[in-house]
Amino acid sequence: MESLGDFHFKKQTAMFRFKFRIFTLSCFLLEIGLQAQNNADYPVKEQYDFTLYNLESGPHYSACDVPINAASISNDYGDYWSYIMESELRMYETTMDKAYLIKFVLDAICIHEHRRDEAWINLGENPTWACEEECDQGPSPYHDGSIIWPMSHFVHLVRTQQPWLLSEPLPQLGNTKISFNNFGAVFLTYGDFSEWLRVRTEQTLDYYLYTGGYWIDSYDCISAKPNDGQPMQINQQAGFGCALFYLGVADPNTDYIAKALNIASRYSGTTEDESNCDYVSIFDVWVNYGRETRSVMELDPNDSYIWQSSGWQPHTCAGQHSWHDLVPDDYEDLSHGYQTLRYPVAVYRAFPNTWFEEQDMIRYRNTFSYNIFGGYDNGCPIIHPAVDGDDYVNYEPSGGYDGVNNPRMVEASMQWMYFALFDDESAGTNVYDIVMQSYACEIMNEVFYISHSNGLNGLAEVTSAQWANECVNVTFYNRDLTYNQDFAIKNRLSILPEASTPYHQPGSPSFADPVITANEFIIEPNVTSYMSAGEEIILGPGFIAKEGSNFVAYINPSACTDGQRLGQPQPPGQIFYVREEVKRDSAQPTKFSPQLTVVPNPSNGETTLQFSLAAQGHVTLVVTDLFGRVVFNDVNEIQSEPGNYSVPVNVSEYATGMYACNLYVDGMLVDVKRMVVK
Fold first, then answer.
1. What is the full DSSP assignment across 597-653?
2. 132 to each of 30, 116, 136, 337, 464, how far by Cα in Å?
3. On the CB side of 101, how many CA atoms lie within 13 Å of its CA?
């Protein structure tokens, strides 16, 4: 081997080797207190996966096992599974992990097998799930609006947001609903499934728009009962707004878009309430002597929006005094408040500053920061249950929303994390900081805290914000990778199938399909997987890349400095074809981490680029200036042996300033360090 002083670089190839170091796995401790814990270490994704599994097998049944009766199908799908499915889409959009899309597909098929026209005992039922005459509350179309909300989102995602999914193969996972369902349908691609789902979702939507008598007009929009002229409350119309918008855009439909715009315009509209009311006891009637105009979204003096649960449904004298000891309608609670806002959020995500302006989003942020948030108690946020900051919600007489930091309200509050996108760093009451601290104080150490699916949807929103804002560290546990899947983590990616943590125990079922209980993370033959991280990749015991798989792990040092959320990684070089099974079965994991140092730094004479090789590999060193021009480029001519290397670089002729030193091993960038010439 050549001496360190005259080591010469001339050639690069495409196989990547890694540096091996010993890593001792410490106990997984979650500590909270006033001492600051890095938000990057909060295991939000891990808790989401754990909670998803528990809710799927919880009191609301799995999507396939909901009892075929009116109340269960309406309530469990409408108030519960709709949020689970939306959370799966948000997790995919954040992590690009197709496991969440596959779960969504399996859930959606089961839910459609339970639609009334498919599973009901009477023939000729409508293409709906919601209660009709069989339930005490009568017709409840709001449940169907909630159900078709995530379904239309999926159609929009595949057809409009990520059209490459149209031809992406949908994994055929054994005896699952993808291949064996009540419809006899086989879905070979995500595009196949999105088209099938679009048709069926539009069947439900069209029933409410055209044949069922639920669409009133452009002012009141969707009615709670057929042809009664009384609009549903604001949060109950939001799901229909989402479906009209997503489907109107994905499968261009001008009438859907027009109706979606009608609903959007009502958010900024007004309504007239009966205000001067008198009760005539002899006739047992309320008489109205006047009307009062009310804004649907009232602008509070602190520049926040507050709104009543009725929305643009006008108050009548009888209606205002029919509940809870003649208490008039109250302001919305924060859980139903997010139901209201799912429609503005859906529109703004796709087309910002169109039907809803940035100023609207800022005012919704202020609703959380100035009203729902009530300061700190022993370092933990106080969460008020109502959008106007009240501690009691009148339309919940059971007291379920009474008082601050009610567990149901705390978990629901995480959904408001979306509005962290509009945080004002100078305000000191940022949604991101509040929700993260609330999560750390109330939820992170209580593994079974999340009991409702809107809390799961909140975890998905917190995951999205964390991945966007932090140099996040993520741990993956057991999994059988039977389809192509990439993993990109900004800081540290750990695969620890044997780990014992609050969110995973050895022998636990994997969260991803196909479900396994073995303490293994397997990449199957003919499966391609890239893994990238900004600092290090740790492969613990139980990691297996089978012969015939395609596996690449690489370090992307810019992941935490470029300010961009990572999606699917795009590494240089070629995929490493595994010719012999790679199995980590020792007591200590393999650790891959950056290797380049620059000494001295700064310098105005000679500096040295130092690096190590743990295995044979072709090495390239490239130094560029701030304009990307190459000022130094040496490639080794022969494959280097493992060891430590030092390469001198004379910078005396370089202009003063900053330079980038890039280390490539077998054609892949593994480290970047900055060099200063003074």
1. EEESSSBSSEEEEEEEESS-B-EEEEEE-TT--EEEEEEBSSPBPSEEEEEEEE-TT
2. 47, 11, 9, 25, 37
3. 26
Out of 592, 624, 653, a domain closes at 592
Give the range among 268-277, 306-315, 351-360, 630-639 with minimum mean pLDDT.
Answer: 630-639
Q: Is the pLDDT of residue 327 over 50?
A: no
380 and 519 assigned to the same domain: no
Residue 581 lies in a domain: yes
d(CA 619, CA 11): 8
Given a cut of 90, whether residue 191 has pLDDT beyond it is yes
pLDDT of residue 187: 95
Residue 665 maps to which CATH number?
2.60.40.2550
- Confidence category of residue 616, pLDDT binned at 50, 70, 90: low
Please say whether the dihedral angle defined by the alpha carbons of residues 466, 469, 473 and 477, taken in this order, is positive or negative.
positive
DSSP state of 293: E
CATH number at residue 156: 1.50.10
- Say if 10 falls within a structural domain: no
Q: What does the chain come to in residues?
A: 678
- The one-letter code for the residue type at 334 is L
| 254-267 and 334-350 helices, crossing angle to 10° | 130
171 or 121, which is more confident:
171
Going by their DSSP bridges, the two strands 473-476 and 305-306 should be labelled as unpaired
On whether both 191 and 172 belong to a single domain, the answer is yes
Q: Is 447 in the same domain as 494?
A: no
Cα(312)–Cα(264) distance, rounded to whole angstroms? 12
**DSSP assignment of 536-564, as one string?**
EEEE-TTEEE-TT-EEEEEE-GGGGTS--
Residues 656 and 548 in one domain: no
Last residue of a domain, one of 469, 496, 529: 469
Same domain, 185 and 291: yes
Q: State the Cα–Cα distance between residues 644 and 4, nearest whole angstrom.
A: 8
Judgement on whether residues 363 and 448 belong to the same structural domain of the protein: yes
Answer for the pair 79, 92: CB distance below 8 angstroms, yes or no.
Answer: no
CB atoms within 10 A of CB 392: 14
Give the tens place of pLDDT for each residue, 89-140. Answer: 999 999 999 999 999 999 999 999 999 999 887 778 899 999 887 787 677 8
Closest CA to 70 of 128, 151, 146: 128
Write out the residue range of the structural domain in which residue 672 sits. 597-677
Contact 556, 623 (CB under 8 A): no
In a domain, 175, yes or no: yes
210-231 pLDDT, tens digit per residue, is 999 999 999 999 998 898 888 9
ω into residue 557 within 30 of 0, thus cis? Answer: no
Q: Are residue 381 and residue 520 in the same domain, yes or no?
A: no
Please indicate, yes or no, whether residues 327 and 235 belong to a single structural domain of this protein.
Answer: yes
Residue with tokens 């209606």: 319
In the chain, the number of structural domains is 3
**Which residues are CB-contacts of 205 (< 8 A; sequence separation ≥ 6)?**
148, 152, 240, 243, 244, 247, 256
Structural contact between residues 300 and 307, judged by C-beta atoms closer than 8 angstroms: no
Helix, strand and coil percent figures for the chain, each rounded to 5: 35, 20, 45
Q: What are phi and psi of 121, to 5 degrees?
A: -75, -20
Q: How far apart are CA 362 and CA 130, in angstroms?
A: 34
More confident residue, 400 or 543: 543
**Cα–Cα distances in angstroms (integers) from residue 534 to residues 189, 264, 540, in the given order:** 32, 41, 18
Residue 569 scores a pLDDT above 80: no
The three-point CA angle 541-467-345 to 5° equals 140
CB 331 within 8 A of CB 311: no
Contacts of 355 (CB under 8 A, 6+ apart): 261, 264, 265, 347
Q: Is residue 30 part of a domain?
A: no
